[in-house]
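Any chance you could type out a protein's amino acid sequence plus the matching backbone structure tokens because I've never seen that pairing?

——
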Amino acid sequence: MTVPGTAEKTAEKTARKKVVVFDYGFGNVRSAERALARVGAEVEITRDYDKAMNADGLLVPGVGAFAACMRGLREARGDWVIERRLAGGRPVMGICVGMQILFARGIEHGVETEGLEEWPGTVGPLQADVVPHMGWNTVQAPAGSELFAGLDPDARFYFVHSYAVHDWSMETHNPVMDAPKVTWATHGKPFVAAVENGALWATQFHPEKSGDAGAQLLTNWIGTL
């Protein structure tokens, strides 16, 4: 497991980075703010376009229904901010439903909603006997993961969700680009727990609620900004 205080010690060696937690009405923005401040970031909660565009990092939280989050994000111009930042190679990180909306579509109660289509794939009901998936779980990170660097393979992260992506189909044949690194977790059928894809990273679990392991993971992200 991560040694207590590791994230804080690492943060002391890292220049303070400006991170905007995008406030579109669907996320635990205060928890995210505290977690990022803990690891040394200068944090602001806002939906201001210029501030979101100019920050070193943009964090997009999300709770609730896929369709409601997409509606709120579009109303706050968050879809435009994410697209513009990624077009310029500016880091974006999604959490929970903030990760799910990055996929092509979500299906809840038989209703299909278009996502941001940064990644192919459909967010659908968890295929497990017990739903929601609520509590601590381990993940299987790929070799070379920057997001999980320095974390014990048995580190546990906090999940609370009823929907997930069960299939990953995106590949890259561009020799200059690395293929996305996909992390999996298992609750019933395996599902996508995190993705690292250039400037776009995301987690299905809540790093801001995952103690020292989550703090180390956020430290890793801040270190790439």
Observations:
- The two ends are 25 Å apart (CA to CA).
